[in-house]
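User: Fold this, then the next.

Assistant: Folding the first:
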Amino acid sequence: MLEGGHGDGGEAILAELGSLPAHVRADCIQVLDAAVRTAPRTWTRRRGVRLQWITLRDGGDAVVAQVDSGELSEHVDWDGPRSARSFAGALREKLGTHRCAALVYGNAVDSRTWGWVLPLLLGQLPRLDTAVMVDVAHRTGARSTFSFPVGYRRSPVRRLRFEEDVHAILRCAGNM
């Protein structure tokens, strides 16, 4: 375990970010920070972690834009389960106009391909996301997938929370 109290997930994130060149790492950290700030706010029990684009333009600031189904439909086989593999083409396309791009989604996205109806008809409950996944691609060719484990705070309204202090992990990575 690292000095900051980061678990194995935090160490893996730090190792992945540490392997990147400094300018690429700085861009990835900026995009990841925006992703971990927005994912809990857009999560719903029915839809899970919403598909979102996080993009970093050549000017600097990260911009969050929710993915519309039309943008991904060119790359996703909607007759089969959605998965990270089907998002790769869309991510590459985003790099044409951005320095760094990321797609944020929940790791149970494949269980929500047909919404809540089909799993219930098959006698299964739709799965809850157990991690926020962030596929990041940089114009330099660097590409990584980061997994941030999540849990759900029990209160009158269920809320998504990260199992580790992801902001501290990203701050630590920024100081590398």
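Now the next one, as you asked:
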Amino acid sequence: MSGISKLLQDLRALDVQEEAIARRRAKLTRAVVEEAGGVKAAAALLELDPRTVSRRTRLDDFAMVVYRNATGRVDDDGRPFGETGGAGDAVQRAADARWWRVDQQQRPKIKLLVVVFRGEVRRIWRVLPDRPWPPKDDGTTFVEVPVEDVPLTAEEVREHYPDLGLNLGDERPMRQGLIREYLALDSTPQKEAQ
């Protein structure tokens, strides 16, 4: 492994560790609030403002879950979308990551891109932090989600995102008219988008 590859791998490992620490901090803060009997009592114990304690109980990180039912289609620009039929990670990555309307303020909170095909979780991509979300060059508001080169394995999902509540191969039925939704990474209620 070259020097730069090792450094990049080490940085990715730190990103994963920081995410895990943030999830653990939110979970422990919620436990303190529960044991103390509420936010005000926990704030007094922690010597913090109740608003700070409340904010620390929420992780606010999400997985963007996208639903697909098309196989091997090509759009007007020649870009494949949907399932690419084993064309390789790079082609499938492009098909999964492009083109989505994602609010600019929500982008830093999205940590995973989960692809569901015909009711089954097929791929889970880690979103790269602090990377630009390249816009489509046609003047629309569509962007490409900056994901890693290869999707996560089921083992990586279990290890790094234990509270996600889904993994590769799990059933996730598509609801009529829903093309994506946002699922909290810390088991708090989900947000939906159409």
